[in-house]
Predict the 3D structure of the following.
Amino acid sequence: MCLGIPGKIIAITDAARLMAMADVSGVRREVNVACVAGNDLEALVGTWALIHVGFAMSLIDEDEAARTLEALRDLGEAQEALDQMAAADEALA
């Protein structure tokens, strides 16, 4: 399964290489925007995209980005609870 993390495109860093800076939950990283690039790369600045292994795979709106981030946070909390349960089971074994 592939997991895309919402990130906001904040700047074009290298137009020739189709590279941009994205803010992914407060972490900035350079991503390739070839999959979502149109004729005007600067139009991507301020938009949200699903980021997967350094590539902006698709554009999404801000509401979808917020819902996806919330779901990922919830999954993280669920995983933390599962990890704690597993650790407790190991301690009792």
Notes: Helices lie at 62-92. Strands lie at 5-14, 19-24, 27-32, 48-52, 55-60.
